[in-house]
Amino acid sequence: MSGEAGLRLKLNKKLKIASGRSRNSKDGSRKFERTLNNDRNGNFKRMNSDRKKKRIYAEQDMVGKVDYSDNETAPSKKFERTLNNDRNGNFKRMKSDRKKKRIYAEQDIFGEVDYSDNEMAPCRKASSKKEQKQVKGDNKSSRSIWVSKRLEDATSETRRSSRKVKDTVKSAETSNRTKTKDVDNMNFGRADSLKKPTKSKYDSSKRVDISREKFPDVSPSKSAKKNVQEKRGLDEGTEVMGDMPKKKKRVIRIDPHDISNKRLDDGLVIYESAKEKKKDLEENTKMSKNAQFRTIQPSPSILSFVEENLLGRRRLIELRRAGYNTELSAPLDNIPFSTSSERERIEENMFRNKLTFFAAAKVSSSFPPPELPEIAFAGRSNVGKSSLLNSLTRQWGVVRTSDKPGLTQTINFFNLGSKLCLVDLPGYGFAYAKEEVKDAWEELVKEYVSTRVGLKRVCLLVDTKWGLKPRDHELINLMERSQTKYQIVLTKTDVVFPIDVARRAMQIEESLRANKSVVQPLMMVSSKSGAGIGCLRTVLSKIARFAKL
Ligand SMILES: Nc1nc2c(ncn2[C@@H]2O[C@H](COP(=O)(O)OP(=O)(O)OP(=O)(O)O)[C@@H](O)[C@H]2O)c(=O)[nH]1
Ligand SMILES: [Mg+2]
Questions:
Q1: In what ranges is there compositional bias, type Basic and acidic residues (predicted)?
Q2: pLDDT at 342
């Protein structure tokens, strides 16, 4: 027993010395903190009991007469062995992490791990969990090597990163000051050794930033140029001076309108300028056309006709004062689908008769035999031919009309009573139809106006806004050649000012003054307002009255 007591005392002493050493060392204090933390979590008692158990097992080993004086690692090995044994026995409840703690405690006690470097602590803390998982091997020395290796890696990495920053700053400074190849090679070499592709980018951007800070007056483009120069210089292995004298650019000013000093390269410019000039000229001519139109002085007879018939754009109050029933839908002198009693009010007896459709022709062979004197209505598409027929007879709906140009595609024959035949011709020019079809219509119209027996008059309808167009002139020339009587009728007078209606009438009369087949006076109507319709009725009914087949 006395021997046993002696051994116990010795062991206690050893343990006290070890714990004292650990407390004195920096890592020992850390270990102490951890134990305190454990205590805070309520494991203090268990720890005490563990220590007691350790002591007991140590005692047991010592009773087993094992000599530890030679090798200090032996007790730890023994401890672990006993712990392993205990897993099957009394210490089943103990968790692995607690066991690990105990292992660390042993390490601390026996001072196997060298914590001389201060940087170790945070690394160890950060990777403590990983380490705990990995530190499973029984060999303490291997564990200590692994930990020390990790620590070394961590410290070297931190050193590297700090060195990197220093290097980048240094390289930036050197590139701006000296810009020698050697310095940059060093930098690139370092970047390569670090094996980070982004590093070089970072370096270059940093360099640019620093250069900007250093030379705030230099524009970014210039600094970029400098960088390019630097790179070139480095590639060639020659020194590039930052303060090179700049070459002044010669600026040659060329007169854009002067063609004499142009080179072949400036051909495009010449072409463009010519195009612009042509455009200006066209605009001027266009302007002059409008200006010319405004200078037309209508004759007093035309002006009085326009005023008497309320032609042109008018206010409702004006129409009301003139006796028009403004409450009726357009045209004002019209009642849609009028009855025979309503037709009685038409001044001219001729147009009191009922309008009836009797034939349509696509080709000249299908024209009906000429039984009645015919009055045809020709003109460009959408000029208002069909509408005028309806307006003259006050029988809206007999002749079909549309907003879309090209509705009338055949020559349509309408009988007005038993004395007159009204013919609606297809329009020419602007129409939503194929070119071949339009050409066919035009040919048919030309054939009709030039060859038709019984055709007493062609009312050539002209839009007041646009006046005579080349196609109209074509038809006029044809009728002149074929000696077909034609009368110009201005339509849609309600969309322009009265003075412009008069000007247009005057303009057309002047242009056709030399023509022989043209019938005067020029008529002006509006199928919408009914203005001038009565006058046209009077003129046309005279034809029927005196016409002889
Ligand atoms: N403001 C106004 N519009 C009119 C007048 N006459 C006709 N219109 C309109 O002009 C468009 C064309 O009328 P249409 O009578 O179909 O013309 P069109 O000459 O027969 O046309 P095509 O059959 O294609 O040759 C329609 O929307 C009419 O409402 C008018 O005197 N004044
Ligand atoms: Mg029509």
A1: 24-37, 56-68, 75-84, 128-141, 149-170, 192-216
A2: 55
Question: Looking at the domain assignment, is residue 117 inside a domain?
Answer: no
Strands 518-524 and 486-491: parallel
pLDDT band at 549 (very low <50, low <70, confident <90, very high): low
**CATH number (domain holding residue 528):** 3.40.50.300
pLDDT tens, residue by residue, 279-296: 777 777 666 788 889 999
Which residues approach ligand 1 with their CB closer than 6 A? 379, 381-387, 401-403, 405-408, 426-427, 491-492, 494-495, 526-528
Pairing outcome for strands 411-416 and 355-361: antiparallel
pLDDT tier, 18 (very low <50, low <70, confident <90, very high otherwise): low
Q: How far apart are CA 87 and CA 506, in angstroms?
A: 125
Query: 357 φ, ψ to 5°?
Result: -80, 135
Domain assignment of residue 445, given as a range:
300-546
Q: What is the pLDDT of residue 212?
A: 45
Domain termination site, one of 112, 136, 163: 112
- Total domains in the chain come to 4
Query: What's the pLDDT tens digit per position in 160-200?
Result: 655 654 554 455 454 445 443 443 443 433 333 333 444 44
**Gap between the Cα atoms of 499 and 303, Å rounded:** 8
User: Mean pLDDT across the chain, nearest whole number?
Assistant: 67
Is 384 in a helix, a strand, or coil?
coil
Q: Using the 3D structure, point to which of 112, 128, 163 is the last residue of a domain.
A: 112
Give, for ligand 1, the residue of 387, 425, 527 to mutate: max count of ligand atoms closer than 8 Å to Cβ: 387
Residues with CB under 5 A from ligand 2 (ion): 385-386, 408
Q: In this structure, which residue's CA is closest to atom 2 in ligand 1? A: 492
**Is 330 found in the same domain as 361?**
yes
Dist. CA 401 → ligand 1 center (Å): 7
Closest CA relative to residue 451, chosen from 325, 367, 537? 367
